[in-house]
Amino acid sequence: MENRTKRRPETEIIHSGYHPDPFARSVSPPIYQTSTFAFESAEQGAALFAGKEKGFIYTRLGNPTILALEQALATLENGYAALATASGMAAVSTVYLAFLEKDAHMIGTAALYGPSRTIIETEFVRYGVSADFIDTSRIEEIEKRIKGNTRLLFIETPANPTMALTDIKACAGLARRHNLILVVDNTFASPFLQNPLELGADVVIHSLTKFINGHSDVVGGAIISRSEQLHNRLQKVLRMHGGTMDPHQAWLVLRGLRTLHLRVEKAQENARKIAAWLESRPEVAWVNYPGLSSHPQHRLMEKQMRGPGSMISFGLNGGYEAGLRLINNVKLCTLAVSLGGIETLIQHPASMTHASVPAEEKEKAGITDDLIRLSVGCEAVEDLIADLEQALEKI
Ligand SMILES: *Cc1c(COP(=O)(O)O)cnc(C)c1O
Question: Is pLDDT of 1 > 60?
Answer without folding.
Answer: no
